[in-house]
Amino acid sequence: MSDSGVPSEDESAAAGYVMEDRFFTDSIDMLCFLDFNGYFKRLNPAWERTLGYTRKELMSRPSIEFVHPDDRERTLKQNAEVKGGGQALAFENRYMCKDGSYRWFLWNAVRDSTETIIYSVARDITASKRARQIGEGAAGCASRSENPAGDIAYLFLLQEDPGR
User: Fold this and answer.
1) pTM, whole model, 2 decimals?
2) Residues of the chain whose pLDDT is less than 70?
3) Where are the beta strands (DSSP E) in the chain?
């Protein structure tokens, strides 16, 4: 600190990096850096809490391997758009958990204009997707069901496996 009590430029920069690192580490949402080859380069701890894999496991394989097979083509297309200078805004796909289940993610992403890196934020929206599916299913059951017992059983299945 200078004699005037004002932090020097170097001290201010160091404090800024500490705050940025803390934001990255403590974020509830999943934050990541993805290289143009499709590998995670940095992940925050929210990834481990959400998917059950260690960050090392997630960074050891191409990210597309964790994406639900039905969502891979759309995901690769979205990534290509971001690599080309576009943005991913409210993009949804499913990611595989270590236990084999899937979680729904809502993504926002942009590429770094000077590096071959994509900066992304993903939010786990599985619970809201599940609630919406159950609500839609209940409305359908009430209005036009020929098999109410079967429809109700299906709603319970949705509740247990939202990746359907």
Assistant:
1) 0.74
2) 1-16, 135-164
3) 30-35, 40-43, 87-96, 102-111, 117-124
Q: CA of 131: how far to CAs of 19, 47, 78, 89, 153, in Å?
A: 36, 23, 26, 22, 15
Residue 29 lies in a domain: yes
Number of domains in the chain: 2
To 10 degrees, the CA torsion angle through 150, 153, 159, 161? Answer: -80
DSSP 50: H
Say if residue 43 is in the same domain as residue 111. Answer: yes
Q: Are residues 25 and 76 in the same domain?
A: yes
Q: Does residue 110 belong to any structural domain of this protein? A: yes
- Residue 155: CB atoms within 10 A of its CB come to 17
Name the residue range of residue 134's domain: 129-160
Per-residue pLDDT reduced to its tens digit, 60-81: 999 999 999 999 999 999 999 9
Count of C-beta atoms within a 10 Å radius of residue 23 = 11
